[in-house]
Amino acid sequence: MSIKGKVAWITAAAAGIGKATALLFAREGAKLVVCDIDEAGLQQLKGELEALGAEVLALPYDAGDTAQIDAVFNAMMQTFGTVDILVNNAGVTGPSKPVYEISVEEWDKTLEVNLRGSFYCLKLVAPVMIKNGGGKIVSLSSQTGKRALVERTPYAASKMAIIGLTRTAAEELGPHNITVNCVCPGAVEGPRGVWVRANMAKARGITVEELEKISLAGAPLRRRVPPEDVAQAILFLSDAERSNSITGEDMNVTC
User: Fold this and answer.
1) Which residue from 75, 108, 119, 148 lies 20 to 30 Å from 62 (Cα-Cα)?
2) Is the per-residue pLDDT at 7 higher than 90?
3) Which helix (H) or strand (E) holds 24?
4) pLDDT at 199
5) What is the mean pLDDT of the chain?
6) How distant is the alpha carbon of residue 134 from its chain centre?
7) Any idea what the Cα angle at residue 225 is, between residues 57 and 17, rounded to 5°?
8) Whole-angstrom distance, CA of residue 129 vs CA of residue 137
């Protein structure tokens, strides 16, 4: 793969898709900048990445705080002097309740992390990539970015907006040899999914088992997506040799 020696910034990397991506990128020889609000998980990841021989900068941050994003970006530039790949992975699930019960604060927090945080990271890296003559930006949307998900209005709105951000930024940055894509996973295995399903089942007045049957009915393979499979798609879209003519796309990773 052509990411060997490239500097990759992966947000929300301490668990799930972010961690699977960081570990995969380390095996492929990338230099890594990883950040997460979970400091303990981040330090554990740092040790795992270094055990794989990767150069790692690991910094705690809040994806909803632009000052903290600035701090990570500045530390990355001071340490590595550049950035070649951005993986916009940070996101929160948001509330699970009917739209008329959602508070403005809940709405704002979900959009702050899922959309504004992704926009802001893209905004910071774009000038560096323009100066370098190219780069790769991959953001995480969702299957919910393409269809309704009841009781999850802020999350759905943010993930639909990520697709709009991706398509428009791809048009703007394409002349600079920067590709901008997003990945749209289906229901992913992991603790976040367990929490979401429990809350959605409660909101609908059904059991988790009933919700699971409903949610997997639309998945052709009738199972959840392993984070590692999503990481492989992110790697493909970050690899100049394999995906250099793909931009403005929202790639499904579903079962």
Assistant:
1) 148
2) yes
3) helix 16-27
4) 72
5) 94
6) 20
7) 10
8) 10
Tokens at residue 183, please?
């990945």
From edge to edge, which strands make up the β-sheet containing 178-185? 56-60, 31-36, 7-11, 85-88, 135-140, 178-185, 250-253
Map tokens 């040790």 to a residue: 47
pLDDT tens-digit map of 148-200: 988 899 999 999 999 999 999 999 999 999 999 999 999 888 776 676 777 77
The single residue listed with the structure tokens 């003519």 is: 245
Catalytic-labelled residue, pool 61, 100, 120, 155: 155
CA dihedral 112, 46, 193, 235 (to 10 degrees): 80
Residue 1's pLDDT is what? Answer: 55
Distances (CA, A) of 16 to 45, 81, 91, 196, 200: 11, 28, 11, 14, 20
Residue 100 bears catalytic tag: no
If we measure between CA atoms, which residue out of 199, 228, 249, 205 comes closest to residue 92?
A: 199
Q: List, in order, residues 6 or more apart from 167 with CB less than 8 Å away.
A: 248, 250
What does the block give as tokens for 228? 């590692």
What was the pLDDT predicted at 211? 76
The three-state secondary structure class of 167 is helix
